[in-house]
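Structure ticket #2291
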Amino acid sequence: MSRRSTRRRNRINYSQFGDDDAKDDSADSDVSLDGDISDSSVATDGGSDASDRDDSVASIVSIPAKKPQEGITKIVRIDKSTSLDMLFTQQFGFDSALLADRVHQREFWSPVLVNLPDPGTWPVLERPQTDLVLLPQTTFTARSTKEILHGRAIHLIDTQLVSIEAGTAYNSTINTGYHVTDMSWTHIDTRHILAVSLLSDTERYAAVPSSAFERKLALGVIQLWSYEDTSMSLTLIAVVTHNWGSAWNIKWRDSTLQCLCVFQDGNARVLDFDSLVSSNGITYQHLDTPSVTIESSMSLISCACWNGPNEVVMGFDNGYVGLYSLHSLMFEMVVPCHSSYIIGINAAYPEYPRRVGVMSTDGQFSVLDLNSLAELKWKRYQSFGSPVEWSRHMHGFLWVEDSLNCRLGSLRNVHWGGLVSWHNGTLTAMSASPEHPLVLTGSIDGTIKTSNVVRKFLNKHDTGKQFRQVQLWQLKYDCDRDAYKFIGGFKPEEVRKRVGVTMNSVKGSTTTSPMPVNTSEVLAMGNKQGVTACCWGHNGIYAAGMANGLIRICRLPDTRASNLSE
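Resolution: structure written out below.
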C-alpha cells in the first residue's frame, strides 16, 4: 500500500480571540499549532509505489509560538432597550436631579393619548430668567381698511353652509383672506395672541415662476388675533402690511410682544407689536422701521430662531450658520455647516444653549455645537422638509424624513432616530410644545395629527410597540358646492415602520419594496386645502393654517375632532 497523506479537520481554538464561549461544533478533535511539524505528524496507510513516494528532501518547518495578545473589548449593540434605567440614562445622562424630574414627567404623561389633563396639574419644565436687552420701538403708518382686507370669502360647511368674509372668524375658524405662510402663539395672562404671516399676491406667485429671494417683492401681511380663555372668542387686533415679501419663521421673544421674522428680501427683523396689542379695536398699519434689522453683506438669511431672549441663530443660503447678539447688534460668529441652502434651523434652548439642529437642501440634517467649534459633532440623517423642532421633554430634535415621516433624534444617542408620526401626503408643518410632550404635524392633504413622544420613547419596548397617533381632523373640499368641511371622528392609528422597507430573516438585512400608491382618492391641488403652518399655544391650544387662508383653532381634548378611545 502506498503512503498517503490524509487531511484532518482542525478545530479552532477561540481562546486566542478572547471569547471563551465560542466553539466550532463541526470539529472532532483539537489540533495544537504550537511546536514543530514533522513526518511523525502525517498519517500513513502503507505502500511503496514510486508514484506515491515523496523524493523531496525532508525539512522541518518551525512555527513561532503564539505571541501574547491584549484583551479584546467586546462591542455590544443594543437594538431594543428593555430596561427603563438604560432608556433614561441613554436619553438624559446621569444627572440625578434631571432623571428624577423625567421619571415624574413619564409617570404623568405616559397614559395621555390626546386627552390632556387640566392645565393646572401639569408638571412644569423650568425656563431660566434672563435680563432682556432693550430694543428700539417699531414705527408704523396708519392705513385704511380697503387697502388691506381685500381677500376672498370662503364657504364652510358646518351644520349649514356658512360664508366667512376675509378678516372675520366663525366659531373657531378664521378666514385671513390670504395664503398662510407661518404662525406663532404667545400669551398674556388669560389672553392668547396669534401672529399670522400672510402672502397677499398668491395668484402672481402661482402663475409665474419666482425665486425664493426675489428683489421685486409682493405686499406682505401680518395679522394679530386675540383668543380669550374665558369667553373662547376670536378677535382681530391688528393688520400690518410691509414691502418685504413673504415672511416665515415667526418666533416670539420670551416675555415680550416682540417677534422675530425672516423675510423674502433675505433679511431677518425683530418687530415690536406692544403698541398695537394694547390699543382698543382693530388697527390697520403699514410697517416702516423695525426694531432690529439683521442682514449680511455676503449672503442672504434663509431661516432663523431665538437662542434665548438676547441671541438669534440663523442659516444662510450658502450653507453657513450665524449667531447674532442683541447686546452688540453684531454677528458673534459665522461658521460653515452645509454645502447647500439651509432651509430649517432650531436651537436646543434652554437645555443645551448654542446647540442647533440644521436642515439643508442636500437632504441632510445635522447638529452643530457653537460652544465647541474645535470639536464639531455631527449627526447626519437623510431627510427632506424644512420643519425642525426641539422637544424639551425628550432632549431631542424633530425633523422630517422621506417627506412623509416625523422622526426624533436624541442628542446623547448618536444612532437613534425614532418614528413619531407619519402621513399619506408630504409633511409640511410641525410643532412641539414646551408645556407637554404632544407633537403636532400637518400635511399637504389637509390632515392634522398628534402623538405623544414620552409615551413612545420612555417606556419599555413592549409598551412602545403599542404607540398610537391620532388624526385630529382633515379639511375636505366639496367641488359641487365650492365649499370646505372639517371632518373629525378618526380612531387612533398605529405608527407604521418606514414605508417600503421590510426586515428579512437574516439579522440586520432589509429589503426595499416599491412604495404603495394611495388610490383611495385623488387629491386636487388647486383647492389649496393643504396645511402650511401649525403651532401649539398655552394650555393645550393649537392652531393650523391652510393654503386657502383658513385657520382652525382648537383646544385638546376636543371630542369633536377625534375619537379618544384606543
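Closing remark: Confidence is low (pLDDT under 50) at residues 5-57, 75-81, 498-525, 559-566.
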